[in-house]
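With this grant's support, we have settled on a layout for protein records. An illustrative entry appears below exactly as we store it:
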Amino acid sequence: MNEQRFRWRNRQLREHTAVVDGKLAPTKLIKHTTYLNVYLKQWIKGHIWIYNDRIIYCGPELPPLTEGTEMIDGSDSYIVPGYIEPHAHPFQLYNPRSLAEYAAQTGTTTLINDNLMWLFLTDQEKAFSLLEEFMNVPASMYWWARFDSQSTIPDEEQEEFEEQVLPWLHHDAVIQGGELTAWPEVLYGGDDQMLHWMQETKRSRKPIEGHLPGASWKTLVKMKLLGLDSEHESMTAEEVINRLSFGYQTGLRYSSIRPDLPEILKGLLAKGHQSFDRMMYTTDGSTPGFYREGLINPCIKLALEAGVNDVDAYMMGSYQAARHFGIEDRLGSLAPGRVAHLNFLSDPKDPNPHAVLAKGEWVRRENQPVTSESDFPWEQHGLAPLDLSWDLTEDDLQFSMPVGMEMENEVIMKPFAIDVDASVERLPEDHNEAFLTLLDRDGKWRVNTLLKGFTDSLGALVSSYSNTGDLILIGKSRPDMKLAFKRLKEIGGGIVLVDNGKVVFELPLSLSGVMADLEMAELIKKEEELKERLKTYGYTFGDPVYTLLFLSSMHLPFIRITPVGIMDVKNNEVLYPAIMR
C-alpha cells in the first residue's frame, strides 16, 4: 500500500503509464464486469486494470501484457467506488485504526476524521506522526482541524488548544475546517480569532463545516456569508432543502443518536425532489453497536429502499463527498488515476459488498473479511494506559451544590433544584438522583453536583471516557465510587461499574483511557453488555456512551458540567466554579 495522500512519486507515475503501453503488466485485472461510471451516471460493461494501489483504466480494452497479473472474474459482480464517510468521530470507544479497518471490510474505504481527541490526549508532534502511521491502514484517512474544544476549559489549556489550530489546518492530511460548534461566539460574540481561522481555511482552499441544529434562515445565511460550506444537522426534508437552497453541501445523517435518514429521504421524495448532487451520507460518530452492518452501506440501502435512483444513491455515498472535499481526482470514482477502492456487489440493489479492494488489496473476499495481523505502535505516539498518580479523597465526594443536572434525553440536560440530603453515604433508591463528579485527569480540580435520570440504583460508574478526557463519576454510593475509581486506576482507564462493593462490569480503554485497543466485533459485544447493565440500574435512554461523552459539551443545551464549573450554555456563564483540589 504505497498510496500518497495527494500524489504518487515520479517513478510510480511512469510505471502507471507503462502499464497502458504494455511495458508493465497490471497487478490485478477485473474482466467482464459491470461498473458504475459516476461521470456518465451509467452502469458500464468492461474491464478494470489496477496497478498496486491505483486504477489504471476502466473500459472495453484489455491490457497488452498480463504476465503475473491476478485475474479476477467480474462477470457476476457490479462494481462501485469505495464508500466515503465524510464526518467520522473515530474515538467513540473504538480507535481510528480499528474503525478504519472495520469500515473498509464493509465497503467504507475513506474516512474524514475529527481531530478533537488528539488535541487533548497527545502533543502535536506525536499526533502528526500518528497521521503518517495511519497511512498504513487499508482505508484512506483524512482529518478536520477543529476551531473549538466543544467545552469550556481552563485558560492555560485554551491557549494550548488555540496554538494548535493553524498547524493542523495547514497539514496536508487535513482537508476541512470544523466542525464549527462554537458558531454563536463568531456570529454573536464577536470572536474575530475564530473568524480569522475560518478565513485562513478558505485561503487554503479547504471547506468549512458547521454545526447548526435548528438554525433559522437568517443564521444559515449569515454563517454562509462568514464562510461555512457544509452542514449535517438537518432533521427533516424541509431543513435539507433550506440548506441546499443557500448553497450548503448537506450531510444526511443516520446515527445512533439521530437516525433521521429514512424520514428525510421519504420527505424529499414526497416533495418530488430529484437532485442529489450536493448531498452525502454520514453516520456522525455513532457508537459501536450501531455499526453492526457497517457505516455507509446501510445508508445507501435505506436510500435504495426509499426509491432513490441507484446511481444517485451510490454517488451520495462516494463521489459527492470526494467532490466536496476537493479529492475527486483521487477518490470517489472508478476512473484512471483513482486510488483502487472498489466494492464488488452481487446486485445494484444491495450495497453490502461481497468483496472489497482497498488501496488495491483484498480486505473482504467471498463475503469474509480478510485481516492482516500487525501491531500498532500506539505507545511511541503517546497513547498508553492511563497512569493516575493521585487518589480519590473524601473531600472529592462532597456534594453541596444547590443546582443539579436533569436528563431530558441522552445528551440534553436542564437544571433542577436539589432538595435531597446529599450528605449520606448512599442515596436512597426511591428517586433517580445520583452523585455526579467531574475530575481533572491530572488531579488539579473537581466539579460536584447531582445528576437526575441516569440511574435509580447503581452504586457507581467511573469513566475516563469523556469529551475532554477527564474523569466522570456517577452513582448512588460514595464507597462504591471509591472502589470504582480504584479499579479504574488498576486497569489503566476505561469504564467501571460497581454496586454494593462488587465490580459488575468493566471495559478497559487502554489508549489514554479514552479508546479501546480491541477489534470492533469484540467492542460491539462489550458496549451491548454495558447498555444492558445500565438498563437494569434504571438508565431509560438509548445511548449511555453519548451521555458520558457530552456531559461537558457546550454545544448542547441547557446546563453542562465542564472543567471550569457548572455552565449555563445559553449565557455562556459559569454558575458554580470548579474547586481546586
Observations:
- The longest strand covers residues 28-37.
